[in-house]
Design brief:
Length: 169
């Protein structure tokens, strides 16, 4: 396989803990660390396991791939270090999260219009329902900066909004 000592483990039951995943692999191989990312407090069903040696990682890869843990067959892949992606900031656009699901694009545009000239406002949807975040584009960078500074701790429809500069991956 490789000289890697770290594996990417998919198809985890959402309630599997770092400790239980470590215990599972430690039965057979020496495990250095386990990390199951939990953005927002809940697992996304994958994790990373670091072994003491490439030999242990190779054995875990070949012997535990497809084995069930808490009712789900593990899918194991070699962990590949990725170069950090440089994000490009759009100086005229903002990302707004924690929007009330009933907030309209017109209401978003009207709210941010108090800080400068709004060119566009959009709220992505899934099955005709708001995803709870949106984007506002201003005519000038100074309007964008003004909105970014003055909209902190503001509310739309009774919900505190969080406003960030928009950056593309």
């Amino acid at each position: 396989m490789t000289n890697s000592v770290k594996l990417f483990v998919k198809n985890l039951e959402w309630h599997v803990s770092d400790e239980s995943l470590k215990d599972f692999f430690a039965q057979y191989w020496e495990v250095i660390s386990v990390n199951i990312p939990r953005p927002g407090g809940r697992s996304k069903g994958f994790g990373f396991v670091e072994f003491a040696s490439a030999e242990a990682a190779n054995k875990a890869f070949s012997e535990a791939n497809g084995v069930e843990l808490e009712g789900r067959a593990l899918s194991i892949q070699e962990y590949e270090e990725r170069e950090p992606q440089e994000r490009q900031i759009d100086p005229k656009k903002l990302f707004i999260k924690n929007l009330d699901r009933n907030t309209t694009e017109e209401e978003l545009s009207d709210f941010f219009g108090q800080y400068g000239k709004v060119v566009s406002a959009s709220i992505p949807q899934f099955e005709n329902k708001s995803k709870g975040f949106g984007f506002v584009e201003f005519e000038s960078e100074s309007d964008t900066q003004n909105a970014l500074e003055k909209s902190k701790s503001q509310e739309i429809k009774g919900r505190k909004i969080f406003v960030y500069p928009y950056s593309q991956k």
